[in-house]
Amino acid sequence: MIPREVCRQVLEAAASTGADYAEIFAENTVNHSISMIASKVDSIKDAVVAGAGIRVYKGLRSVMASTVDTSLEGLLRCAYQAAQALGEGTAEISIVLKERIFGDIHPIKIVPSTVGNSEKVDILKEGYFAAKEYDPQISQVSGSLLDVDHQILIANSEGVYAQDRQIRTRMAISAVAEKDGQTQTGSCSPGRRMGLEMFSSIAPKEVGRQAARQAVVMAGAGYCPAGVMPVAIDNGFGGVIFHEACGHSLEASSVAYGQSQFCGKLGQKIANEKVTAIDDGTIPNAWGSINIDDEGTPARKNVLIEKGILKSYMIDKFNGRRMGMESTGNARRESFAYTTTSRMTNTYIAPGQDSNEDIIASMEYGLYAKQMGGGSVNPVTGEFNFAVTEGYMVRNGKICEPVRGASLVGKGSEVIMNIDMVGKDLEMGQGMCGSSSGSVPTNVGQPLIRVSSITVGGR
Q1: pLDDT bucket at 414, cuts 50 / 70 / 90
Q2: Residues sharing a CB contact under 8 Å with residue 324, sequence separation 6 or more, in sequence order
Q3: pLDDT confidence of 103, banded at 50, 70, 90?
Q4: Which residues of 250-263 are buried (b: 16+ CB within 10 A; e: fewer)?
Q5: Angle, vertex CA 48, rays to CA 46 and CA 54, nearest 5
Q6: Residue 328 to residues 71, 335, 384, Cα–Cα distance (Å)
Q7: Is the entire prediction scored with pTM above 0.85?
């Protein structure tokens, strides 16, 4: 995108007032989306994000400037603005950039931009009408198909000059069911770091049916009782509870400033010995995977917790300086207009040895959370609150009637101590994670797990 010689000149300009690190992050991203509502295509949109962010460090001071003008003149102007904001003075620095090709572990078979809108609309219609025709109780359906072509370049004063191309595809179907004057919503939104070949393994009709099934089940559900009880949380997007309640507290953006419940606990037991938690950006074609992070560090598999023992944090370059630790390949940003910080990629609780049947049978009275929704967390204290979008009561070791309105309330450091059974059936769920560096695609996952005791909010 930007020639190596231009990057060299710009980096030397950015470091001209004494910076000990300078970096260029450039991108050209095309977002293409199709949406449907009321049985018709509602919109077809293209959005282009293009520009560059220039960042400089001096010790523990950091300045970032951005521009949409990626000509040599525009980049130099931006570089000098960052340099002047960092400090006054002069410094001569000679930078040698060596191109690095890290390889691509995420092969793309059908690049979405080479496929016409009519074919994409047909794919979306399959999912949409499968939901609409699922049951007479379905009163409304909406759907979307998104494909993203995200091309990035990173060059820095350490000599890195590297590029990556990230193509992602995602379908989302939402259905509303009505029963006795009450409405409930169901949704399904799978995504992959793939092209349209994603739909050779994920049937659009099944996406629609899953969204409609959830809506119909929950429309006929009573309200969940409140109380402290054991809860079984299913696989896939159930992993959001670890992502939010613990994952954010393991990011260097919290740990480096002493604003995490897990500060200073490396090597200590912070979870039940059945818990091994991993962040892995190298899973082929997974929604949150990368070849390199947004600082040019190769993606890797980071074991965060091993059999209950805290082994690692997720670290970017700048926060790694404050911590005296190296980057773990977790620097991410939504776009060139955001400053990079430490973020998750594909974060999950590893499979255990318990069977799903034994986990449910172990519960005399409790809640089975089949599908989790959104929530909130304070990474300093670890206190969280999550909605359960599809839940069932468990009595005498059997899954019984569906219940709505359930939420899980607790503290991250406590809930991972109370995970006392872990199943074998690991699955992933896809989401967009928002933080100080914007919104980035992340996978969450786990097998079916049992939390021995947690507060369930209900009615």
Answers
A1: very high
A2: none
A3: confident
A4: bbbbbbbeeebbbb
A5: 165
A6: 32, 20, 26
A7: yes
Average pLDDT over residues 145-156: 98
Q: Tokens for 323? A: 């911590």
CB neighbourhood size of 159 (10 A):
15
The predicted structure's pLDDT at residue 131: 98
Contacts for 376 with CB less than 8 Å, ≥ 6 apart: 244, 384, 385
Q: What does the buried/exposed string (b/e) look like for 114-126 if buried means 16 or more CB atoms within 10 Å of the residue's CB?
A: eeeeeebbebbbb
Chain mean position to CA 25: 20
Q: How far apart are CA 13 and CA 17, in angstroms?
A: 8
Instruction: Report the distance separating Cα 326 and Cα 127, nearest Å.
Output: 45
Which two three-digit tokens encode residue 405?
A: 């309105």
Instruction: Give pLDDT tens digits for 356-371.
Output: 999 999 999 999 999 9
Tokens 């995977």 identify what position?
289
Question: What percentage of the chain's residues is helix, strand, coil (to nearest 5)?
Answer: 20, 45, 35
Within 8 A by CB and 6+ apart from 301, the residues are 278, 279, 280, 281, 282
Tokens read off for 443: 């996978």
